[in-house]
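Quick one, tokens below. Sequence please?
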């Protein structure tokens, strides 16, 4: 199947009096900052006085439900008005959870006619009159949905990673450039960039607190994750999408799906510079059965920068082993440690420093910032780093799957497209497990 084409988009808004409201909201995204500065008024206000931002959720799993809750808490004048998912039961569970959450019931208005299920559910959500969409499906669908959302003139929260292959990364960069031209916000789910302790320590690193960074060690050691046993009435597509985490075409593998957070922190600390090359190893030591799809259970990658600095990336998902999710940075004048534990962000150098304040929930902060930027008419656009950090993680997977040295240019120009032959409920062979030394770089 080819990548999503603009011709597949809903052709304009549904016929209703709401179209003028949405046109106004799009327009104020670009001129609102000037209006606000001149008049002191909130720039996102309709002539009728209705300044409620309508939110659509695309992807109703646990992360999507959490993102919807945080979006509804981020602004006093916001409502969830549409939801879409591949599966009816997942949508209904998400809606039930949100309706039962404290302080959210008055902000939810999702009648049956705005509940959409199936591969085209995202199109229906976008055409339902929403102003902001939360893209929280499995990562494979992110480029497709982001392009559609920006073409439709919506502000976007996009969970990480934003793609699972290089063509997807390029699609995301194009969509985010278009969002910038249209004055639309795109906030990434790389939430550590919005975490106060991390913001402060990276600022200090940029100011030279540990000298020149020479070595970074990014660890993500954890146990196993959920699995959903195959049911008799499930087709291959049902089984794979229900267990999306275990299939590279859907998740990117776990060093992409989850470890992208810490890899992005390393890129951030390096001034959003990315390494020239990588070599690594990985495989399936524990998760060997077909129920685990085709992803690995461990990856180890060494990335090298032009300066000679190294980023050592280690990931493992095995029960009964020591867990550790952390980043350690060694510089010419000291070191820094970054973890989400209390007092776990610190600098060891001539001037010692530990973050000891109480930090606001980082997942909430990213939504607070998203909606504040929409209201101010100064939309945030995280597109550049969310795309390139996703490629950084994908580059590591390429190195572990092939066993070869992968350069940044190779990853950037890769023709590997993990899109399945078709999006429909039917038979789709399980992709083979990569064999280092035999699996070819594409």
């Amino acid at each position: 199947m080819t990548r999503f084409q603009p011709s597949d988009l809903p052709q304009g808004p549904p016929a209703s009096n709401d179209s003028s409201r949405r046109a106004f909201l799009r327009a104020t995204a670009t001129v609102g900052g000037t209006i606000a500065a001149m008049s002191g008024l909130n720039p996102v206000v309709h002539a009728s006085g209705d300044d409620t931002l309508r939110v659509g959720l695309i992807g109703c799993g646990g992360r999507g439900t959490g993102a919807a809750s945080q979006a509804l808490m981020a602004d006093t004048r916001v409502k969830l008005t549409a939801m879409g998912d591949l599966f009816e039961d997942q949508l209904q569970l998400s809606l039930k959870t949100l309706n039962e959450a404290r302080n959210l019931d008055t902000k939810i208005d999702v009648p049956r006619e705005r509940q959409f299920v199936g591969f085209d559910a995202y199109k229906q959500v976008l055409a339902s009159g929403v102003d902001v969409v939360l893209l929280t499906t499995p990562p494979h669908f992110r480029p497709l949905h982001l392009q559609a959302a920006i073409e439709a003139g919506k502000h976007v929260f996009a969970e990480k990673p934003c793609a699972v292959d290089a063509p997807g990364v390029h699609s995301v960069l194009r969509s985010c450039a278009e969002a910038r031209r249209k004055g639309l916000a795109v906030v990434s789910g790389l939430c550590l960039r919005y975490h106060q302790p991390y913001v402060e320590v990276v600022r200090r690193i940029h100011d030279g607190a540990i000298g020149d960074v020479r070595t970074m060690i990014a660890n993500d050691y954890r146990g196993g994750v959920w699995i959903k046993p195959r049911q008799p009435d499930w087709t291959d597509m049902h089984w794979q999408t229900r267990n999306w985490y275990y299939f590279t075409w859907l998740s990117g593998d776990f060093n992409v799906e989850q470890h992208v957070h810490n890899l992005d922190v390393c890129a951030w600390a390096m001034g959003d510079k990315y390494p020239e090359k990588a070599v690594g190893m990985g495989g399936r030591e524990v998760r060997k059965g077909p129920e685990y799809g085709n992803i690995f259970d461990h990856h180890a990658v060494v990335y090298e920068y032009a300066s000679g600095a190294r980023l050592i990336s280690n990931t493992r998902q095995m029960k009964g082993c020591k867990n550790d999710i952390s980043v350690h940075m060694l510089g010419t004048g000291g070191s820094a440690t970054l973890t989400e534990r209390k007092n776990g962000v610190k600098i060891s150098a001539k001037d010692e420093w530990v973050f000891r304040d109480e930090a606001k929930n980082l997942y909430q902060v990213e939504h607070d910032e998203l909606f504040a930027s929409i209201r101010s008419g100064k939309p945030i656009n995280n597109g550049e780093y969310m795309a390139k950090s996703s490629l950084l993680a994908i580059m590591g997977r390429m190195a572990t799957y092939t066993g070869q040295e992968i350069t940044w240019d190779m990853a950037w120009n890769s023709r590997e497209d993990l899109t399945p032959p078709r999006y429909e409920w039917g038979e789709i062979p399980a992709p083979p497990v990569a064999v280092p030394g035999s699996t070819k770089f594409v």
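The chain has two domains: 6-192+367-381, 196-355+390-412. Residues 134 and 301 are 32 Å apart (CA to CA).
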